[in-house]
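To fix ideas at the outset, we first show an illustrative case, written as a sequence plus integers encoding its fold:
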Amino acid sequence: MSERVATLVLSGGGAKGAFQLGAERVLREELGFRWERIIGVSVGALNATLLAQQEYARLMDLWLNIREEDIYRKFSWPVLAFRLAVQHKLGFYDDSPLRALIQKHAAGRPFRVPTHVGRVSLVSGEYELLGHESPDFLDAVWHSSTMPVIWEAIGPQAFVDGGLRNVTPLGDALDFNPTEIVVIACSSGKAEQAPSPASIIDVAKRSLTDITISEILRNDVDEFVRINNLVRQARAVGLELKKPDGSAYRYCPITVIQPSKRLGDMLDFSSVTIRLRMRHGEEVARMEMARQSLMNLPPPVPPTPV
């Protein structure tokens, strides 16, 4: 089996991140992909961390045995009202258990592949990308995985999910001059049907995560593919497209792996649902690679030397 080198980009999506686990395993073990770099936001940051440490069995065990209480603490409505009205908390629930989970599975282990995660500050409004060399990298993984409003924003900078501004950090990946890019998303990029919200928390989950993430994902991927195609067409006739700063756009082969069906509630950590999502990730990865093979796609175009 020949080796195929690529940068892996992992999107947000809460408990739907189990889909990424199944898809990544097939790409790496069955189809020969080797990751030169991994970039993730939200749940993609958590998956990126253990994949970059090549802790494959540990990551699988984490997902197969994960429980809702391992991620966050729920509260009764009276306690929730007290937290919001009296304690002025910045989210419905507390996801500090998630920080303990990250520390348990990732602290003190070496990184075998360069990796980066994104977080957003509600104070500055800015998106920040941190590499694994950063001393607060694991805290940044926690910040990146914290869905705003649902969970409490963290620290004086009120850090939250990097997916709030960058669901699929494609721009981040391009900055590292990748050989090829593989995106594993947790949604199809289309708005999915869902039951009518039964509570204000359901409204927050649906509007701030499902719908917002789907829209940003679609825009991110569509814009990347559009520019990528223009760059390829320009190169074919000997032209070069340039960015506003004068630097040249470069063509980069991209494969997008995304669900072909609805994966359900992003806070559904039930073991049956997790396994179904993993299996669907495996199926979609195999189908996408088979589609590329049947189309007799040419090998990826190597990056233009800078």
About this structure: The domain at 4-296 is CATH 3.40.1090.10 (Cytosolic phospholipase A2 catalytic domain). The chain has a mean pLDDT of 85.
